[in-house]
Design a protein that fits this description.
Rossmann fold, 7-stranded mixed β-sheet, 42% helix
Length: 318
């Protein structure tokens, strides 16, 4: 192997640049040229590819987002699109690829592996929704952003005896809400794994208000409720004033934390070493503070068991 490609795909995550830097630096150590693919799989199909040197990535580890840009490609989801991508890789003499992204991106990596390209995946998603790894790149930074925002909301809630519903990202995974609450960010949470109905939320809030706690924070994962409907229901049921805050894309931005930079660096170097040693169709991760790798085919079938963390939360919020 004398040349490999690297791309970032799907939603951006703080730490992606640190991973890109690690891939380029590690590849250069093994005398391998790196080709940066712009805008994810769509950029691959369109041939938006250029060489990346060590000097190109020298000062990017502390930057949020991704210097390679990213996108979601509906064209790549079709067989015809993947065949175009395969042709482009062959035209650029690239037979090895590192894909940095979430579950959908790693599914794409698996498809390229099946077409004969040597591929290693790196989990880069703020949702932390892949069970094979304890942490994905970007989750720690985003969690700290959420906690910072929640801390400011709690200050004004206390001052005005208000209840606020805060919607955080996560898609179908409640880790941002769960870990935020474990870190002291909220009193009531509802996640896809432990969804609360409106009456249960009202009951919990009523109990807290009756005990003298007039300022309360409810953290929910996105896509679960109509926020205006939930707000009206609680206000009418409990006769209180409720605010709603959607943190939105502010959660994705910002400089990556030290944890995410180190994690991304370890994963990037490991990805290159796996390719050098003849591995393909794998993705790197972290389990019990150790870097591991798993076959891509198993990544999408697993779902994390977070029962221990929910039991801990129940103890704290009892």
């Amino acid at each position: 192997m004398n040349k490999l490609g690297v791309l970032t795909s799907g939603g951006d995550a703080p730490g992606m640049n640190a991973a890109i830097r690690a891939v380029v630096k590690a590849a250069n150590y093994y005398h391998i040229d790196v080709m940066g693919i712009q805008c994810g799989y769509q950029g691959l199909i369109d041939g938006e590819i250029h060489r990346l040197t060590s000097s190109d990535v020298e000062n990017i580890a502390d930057r949020g987002g991704t210097i390679l840009k990213t996108s979601r490609s509906s064209e790549f989801m079709e067989e015809a699109g993947r065949k175009k991508a395969l042709k482009v890789l062959k035209n650029f003499d690239i037979n090895s690829l590192v894909v940095i992204g979430g579950e959908g991106s790693l599914k794409g990596a698996e498809k390229l592996h099946e077409l004969g390209i040597n591929v290693i995946g790196i989990p880069g998603t703020i949702d932390n929704d892949m069970a094979y790894t304890d942490y994905s790149i970007g989750f720690d930074t985003t969690l700290n952003t959420v906690l910072e925002c929640i801390g400011k909301i709690k200050d004004t809630d206390f001052s005005h005896d208000k209840t606020t519903i805060v919607e955080v990202m996560g898609r179908y995974c409640g880790d941002l809400a769960l870990y935020s609450a474990l870190a002291g960010g909220g009193e009531i949470i509802s996640t896809p794994e432990r969804k609360l109905d409106f009456d249960t939320m009202c009951s919990k809030l009523s109990s807290r208000i009756s005990s003298g706690k007039k300022d309360n924070l409810v953290i929910i994962t996105e896509r679960m409720y109509d926020l205006q409907e939930l707000q009206r229901y609680i206000e009418e049921k409990l006769n209180i004033s409720v605010r709603t805050t959607v943190l939105g894309f502010i959660q994705r931005g910002g400089n990556p934390s030290a944890f995410d930079r180190v994690l991304a660096t370890k994963m990037g170097v490991t990805a290159v070493e796996l390719l050098v040693n003849g591995h393909s169709g794998h993705t790197v991760g972290m389990k019990e503070n150790k870097i591991i790798h798993r076959e891509l085919e198993y990544v999408h079938a697993e779902r994390a068991d977070k029962q221990d963390k929910y039991r801990l939360l129940e103890t704290l919020l009892h």
